[in-house]
Structures are given as C-alpha cells and as structure tokens.
Amino acid sequence: MGSATAATPKRRRREPRALAAATLLTALFAGSALACGYENPQSVALGVMNWVYPKSLYVRTAVWQAEDAGVLPPRETKPEKDLFSLGFRRAVDSLNGLGARVENAGGNDFHFSVVLIPQVM
Amino acid sequence: MTIRLTIKSLLGATALAVSTVAAPAIAQEALMDSGQIDPGTVAKFFKKPGYSPYAGRNYPTRPYFGDQHLHTAWSVDAGMTGATLTPEDAVRFARGEEILSNTGQPVKLSRPLDWIAVTDHSDGMGVISELKDGNPELMADQTLKRWHDMMQQGPQEAAAATMELIKAQSNKQLPPAIMDPKFANSVWQKNNQIMEKYNEPGRFTAFIAYEWTSNAGGGDNLHRNVIYRDASDKADTMIPYTTFQSENPEDLWKWMSNWEEKTGGSLLAIPHNGNLSNGRMFELQTFTGGPLTKQWAEDRARWEPLFEVIQTKGQSEAHPSLSPNDEFVAGYELWDRGNLNLVPKKPGMIEHEYVREALKNGLKIEQDVGANPFKYGFVSGSDAHTGMTAMEEDNYFCKFVSCEPRPERWSEDAMKFGDRVVKGYEVTAAGYTGVWATENTRAALWDAMKRKETYSTSGTRMIVRFFGGFDFVAADATSRTPAEIGYAKGVPMGGDLRKAPDGKAPTFLVAALKDPLGGNLDRIQIIKGWLDRDGKTQEKIFDVVWGDADKRKPGADGKIPPVGSTVDIADASWTNTIGDPELATVWTDPEFDPTLKSVYYARVIEIPTPRWTAYDAKRFGVKMDPKVPLVTQERAFTSPIWYTPGG
Question: Could B416 and A39 be called an inter-chain contact, meaning their C-beta atoms sit closer than 8 Å?
Fold first, then answer.
C-alpha cells in the first residue's frame, strides 16, 4: 500500500519522486536491512512510505477494518490472476480519469489521498 | 550462587530451619570471610523464624518476565521497514500501557512485563529518526539541516530530501556528521535517558542495552545483545561497539573487557539465532579459523553466559536431524533452510547451530582444552522490529511492521532473497524470559542472568523451578514451597554439581505451574547430554512427570503417549480439560556414571493450544493453506545444571 496525492497535473508529475525514493532507499539501505534478515523490496518500499508519508500504513489497517465492518465490500478470498497487468492498467486509467475530473472540478488547493493496495505497488 | 551456597551451608551443617536465613549482605559477608562456617557463630547473627514462614527469605521467590531483545524505529532496518515506534514507546508498551501500533492499531499486553531490554542495532543507531527529529549534532551541518527542514515541509519535500540523501550516498558525499562519533554518542545518551526515565526499581526494569550485529560478512547470524548492569552514568561513557569496527565476537569481548575496566561496570552478551548462522554460532574453531584454546573458551563463557533459545525467527534448541527421537522438536518452529540471507545450508552446518548440541560439544571441548565455552543458560526474546514485544499467540504483532495484524500476513513473504522465501506463517510468536531474581532491579536481574538462573519460554508465562543435588527425595516434590528445599539441598538452574558422593546419582527437583492465561501442562522432560567413555557426545530425553497420569502410562519405548488435543481450530479456542495445571517431581538419573561429564535441563510442554495463525484465520475469516500450522504446544526450557566428575 502507499498513499499518493492525485490532484493537478503539476502535482502528478511530482508523485513519482516518492515512489522512486522508496525504491532507491531499498537499495541504499540494503546492507542495513539485512541486519536481521529482511530483503523484501515491496515491504521495504511500504516501510519507506510510512516514513515519507507519516502514518500512511494506518490507511491499510483502516481498509481491512472497513472490510470487516462491512463499510467496504468484502475482500476477495481468491483474487483473479492479473494477466498482462490488466489490473494495473485499469488502476492507471482510473487514476488518470480521477485526476482529470478533479482538475475540471477546479482549484489547485483541493487535496486528497489515493490508497494503493499492495498488489498495485 | 553466593546466596545458595550460604543457605546450603547453614542448613547442611546445622538444624536451623530453612527460613532462618540472613539478609543477602550478611550472608555474602559470612561466606567470603570464612571458608567453613561455624554454626554456632552463625546462629548469633541470624534471627530465628517468627510466625511467618516467608519472613527473612533471601532467595528468589518469583520469576520476573521480560524480553531481552527488542528493536524500535531507531534500528535502521526497522525504521526503513516502517517502524515508527521509539524506544520510549517500546518501554511504555512493555510496562503495560496501551499504544497505537505502527499501522495504527490499538495494542496492549495481556499483562505488563516486569522488564525490558531495548536492543537497537548499534550500526547506524537512530540515523533516520534523528535526521527527521533534528538531532543537534546533525543540524550543525548545513546540508543535513536543509534535509531536516524539507522533511518537515510535507511528503513531497521529504521525498526530495530522500532523493538527495540517496544521491549523496551513492557519490560517497554523505555529510561527515552522520559518521561522527559525536552523533552516535548523542543518540546513545538519548536512549539511556529514556531507560532511566522508565527504570523504576522494585516495579519495572528498563535495561540499557544494544545489539551488536555481526553477519560474518555474508548473513551468518552471529548477533549478540549486550546488556548493561549499570545506569547511564557508566553507560554514557562509551558509545556501543559496532560491526563497522569488527565482526569478530572476540573483538566484542575485548571491547566489553575494556569497558568494564574503564567504568567498573558489568556487561554480558547474549548470542541468538544460531539456527541462521550456517554452522558458525557454535563452530569448533575461532572466528578466524584458529583452534580453540582454554583462554578462548574461558572468554566466551565469561562474556556470554546466556543463549536465546527461541524468538520470532524460530527455535535454536534442537533440530530433528540431530535429535530424531525428540518428537517435540520435529516440525516445531524450524527455520533451517539457510542463513539470514537464506543462503542454503550445506551438510555439517546444522551440527553447530543448536544449543543442545553445543551443550554436549562444550563437555568435549572442556575435556580437550580445560574449559567449556558453551556453558549457556537459556533465555528468550522477540527480536521484534516493531517496538512492540507482543508475542502472545492471541495478541501477536509479529516481527516486522509489514506483518502487523492483517488478513494477508500469513501468506505474504516474511523474508525474500530471489526465489528463496520464508513465508509469513512461519514467523514464530516467541518469546519471553523468566528470571529468578531477588528483586526487580537492574542489578538483581542482571546478577540472576549472570548466574544463569533463568529460563526461556515460547511466550507462555508458566512458572518453572529446577534444582539439582544428590539428596532430593520424592517427598520434596510435595512441598508447596519447593524452592526452600531446592536451595537448601541443591543448586538452582544454571548451577554446577561436582563429584558425586559415593553411591549417589544426581537428583533433580523440578516443578512447573501453568500460566494463568495459558494451557495446562502436558509433561516435564529432563534432557540429558553427556560425554561417553569413548569421548562421543550422547543425549537422552526422559519424561519425568506428566499430566493425566492416571490415564497415560509409558509405552514400550518408554515414551508417554500424546496428551491429546482440545483445540477447536475454527473457534481458535481450547479447554483445560486435559493435562494438569501443575506438575512436580523428584527424578534421579537412572543411568548415571559418576566418571562422565553430563548436563541436564528441563523442558516443560503445555497441552496443544491455538497458534497465532488460528487466531488470524478466525478473526479475519481466511482459509489458510493446509501446510500452515494452526496448533502449537507452548514450552519452557530451563537453564541447565552441569555435572563434573572429580571437580
């Protein structure tokens, strides 16, 4: 999971910075991460997100708690296989569409977070 | 041991009642001033017992439970994997406070612990969090100050600062302040101030401690936790030893010796995870490949009195390939596929990774060089990298932030190196240490650790007593206060027996009381290792007392049948309708040879109860793969008692 802000085109251009930082930090601190035997780039990237975006992992907890409470639809017990990364492409399209609609809604001061579930990352 | 010897001397030589013991200071003085205590003289100084049988006791009367191995966000690997909880959060949690986990979940222990040792990695301790928090030593550098400011300005700017940091690292242009010992010192003193703030003699002990994290250059786990007996006035005087300086444990011992010499304080080190050392934790040579010597063996025994038997990365007690007749080891929390990098094991490695084997090999080394380097007492720790020692099966917050409670955590990768993976369900909910100390203070707990009067548990808080001597009789096990008899007639766990009296074999008084919140007891076993006449190591496991004794009898192989199971996996529950809430017995070694070196420890097994995976399956409504273990048998391992002929 991660948290990214989707708003103006300008802001969208800056989004990759955080993700790149997470990825690169994985490499930078690989030696340290090995201290107690931990080499999982995806999870390290999630950890970095919690640092760059304080409390971002709270959101992931909120998601499963909302699923359990019935606020969100129940999670899939057996997710379908994501052939040819179609799921990722759908997510990108959805985010682009969301960004466009927000932009059309006007105002550069409008901020909100988009939560990316682990598989997306 | 001073206390025990005093009590034994008094009681063995006179008809004084057991409870007529002196205050520790007086007892120690008497012991040191005279080789042979004269009962008549002693009687002048000791009060006769009053009405209360408990007044005046000066031996440990209760175990203090704690975790000697916990990381927080100040460990670089923990911080980089999402931990935000600090040493202060960690101590508050161990004391019983409710906190918010790194993923925003309220969490609290079922019961407070009595003590904690926060052991953040000394390599790079606090770098990330201190940069973010504005450590003055770092802020003196313009670049670091700018990065700090950017981190406060929001996620985008924080990310940009991170990118700059990465670029500087890759170009070898990191500001020198990060490597400056002054910075390390500021972090260390900050850590120690936190421990002082929460250390409350008599109520809760916060040790000053750190982890020295040697991976022997390639993921072979040679880690040691360094535990301070003293307060910050001494601890502050030197920053922790790092593997930037050396990965050789002998250099750590030298550093410890130097520290003690300079400060007058006391340190001990606790190795852990021999199971991930790829044959190096208990290898029969020095770190650099040299032969073992008496001096080396004595140094190791001096600086490392304890070994961590079980933690989140599995157990290092024994392995099925080495102990094929041990049904309680087979399949129990084994991480035996590789080292910390999951570099696969080669034949001959496992023999030097597990403490039972080390205990036996220690006898042989002692015979060969004149000292036993592997004379280990037993402890446990969590090694959690979350700041939370939440190791109860029904309250398990795992080793890493990524596996804090979530529906998917059982199926995700806990460790991954290419195609070599340890899955989330394999992470163990363990463990805690019981320390038989006279009071809950740093000094008393540390002294008990030093004399090995400790036991390791998988997370249960059962109470276990284990004494060895030559004069215990069956009736001693019926006492409601077995310790009085135990200390009077023998030595406690961690002690030594020497030169058996003619015609006598070692006898052991062992007693266990279930954890009030845990399962009943299945059985107590005594595990014996020895060196035979041919100089070969041997082991044997004896079931010495068991629950449901009216229904269970030893089979033809001498083993007690399984206790059964009441676990309702779907409901993640069980009933204490099998097993016994307490077990006690006196056992005499039936195969004792007074001329052979031997070692004994007790293992107490609970009845089957739900493993953390079963609680997850129920609470999250997930169906797990059939290979996922859903039931466990919690256990405790006492520190051993050694027998040395002629000694």
Answer: yes
B416 contact residues in A (CB cutoff 8 A): 39-40
Contacts with A, B 230-289, CB within 8 Å = 276
pLDDT digits (tens, 9 = 90+) for B567-602: 999 999 999 999 999 999 999 999 999 999 999 999
pLDDT, tens only, B280-305: 999 999 999 999 999 999 999 999 99
| Interchain pair B163, A20: CB under 8 A | yes
Q: CA-CA distance, A100 to B249, in Å (whole number)?
A: 60
Out of B155, B340, B385, whose CB is closest to A34?
A: B340
Strand stretches in B55-179, DSSP E: 62-70, 99-100, 106-107, 115-118
Tens digit of each residue's pLDDT (9 = 90 or more) over B22-41 = 333 333 333 344 455 566 66
DSSP character for B121?
A: B
Query: Which three-class secondary structure state does DSSP give residue A2?
Result: strand
Mean pLDDT of B535-548: 97
Q: Distance between CA atoms of B576 and B609, rounded to whole angstroms? A: 10
Contact list, A33 vs chain B (CB under 8 Å):
76-77, 80-81
Cα Rg, chain A, nearest whole Å = 16
**CB neighbour list of residue B624: distance below 8 Å, 6 or more residues apart:** B410, B411, B425, B613, B616, B617, B630
Residues B421, B366: Cα–Cα separation, whole Å: 39
Question: Cα separation of B206 and B607, whole Å?
Answer: 33
Q: What is the nearest CA distance from A105 to chain B, expressed in angstroms?
A: 23
Q: Quote the distance between the C-alpha of residue B631 and its chain's center.
A: 23
**Cα separation of B87 and B66, whole Å?**
15
Measure the CA–CA gap between A74 and A67, rounded to whole angstroms. Answer: 5
Disruptive mutation site among B99, B162, B210 for chain A (greatest number of A CBs within 10 Å):
B162
Interval B595-637: pLDDT, tens: 999 999 999 999 999 999 999 999 999 999 999 999 999 999 9
Confidence of residue A107 (pLDDT cuts 50, 70, 90): low
pLDDT in tens, B360-407: 999 999 999 999 999 999 999 999 999 999 999 999 999 999 899 999
pLDDT digits (tens, 9 = 90+) for A89-103: 887 888 888 888 887
Question: Token pair 């008599």 is at which residue?
Answer: B202
| Residue of A32, A44, A118 lying closest to B124 (CB–CB) | A32
Asked if B77 lies within 8 A of A29 by C-beta distance, the reply is yes
- ipTM exceeding 0.85, yes/no: no
Order of all β-strands in the sheet with B507-513: B490-492, B463-469, B507-513, B582-588
CA B142 to chain CA mean position, Å: 44
Q: What is the pLDDT of residues B228-279, one digit of tens each?
A: 999 999 999 999 999 989 999 999 999 999 999 999 999 999 999 999 999 9
The answer to whether B554 and B585 are in contact (CB under 8 A) is no
Residue A51 has pLDDT above 80, yes or no: no
Following DSSP, what letter does each residue of B381-433 receive, concatenated?
---BSSS---EETTEE--SSGGGSS-TTTTTSEEEEETTEEEEGGGS----EE
Check B162 against A25: CB less than 8 A apart: yes
Rounded to whole angstroms, how far apart are CA atoms B624 and B408? 10
Query: Distance (Å, rounded) from C-alpha A10 to C-alpha A15?
Result: 9
- Report angle CA B417, B421, B425 to the nearest 5 degrees: 140
* B160 min Cα distance to partner chain A (Å): 7
The answer to whether A76 faces chain B, any CB pair under 8 Å, is no
Whether A72 and chain B come into contact, CB under 8 Å, resolves to: no
Q: What is the pTM of this model?
A: 0.88
Task: Please answer yes or no on whether B159 and A18 come within 8 Å at the CB atom.
Answer: yes
B224 reaches A (C-beta below 8 A):
no
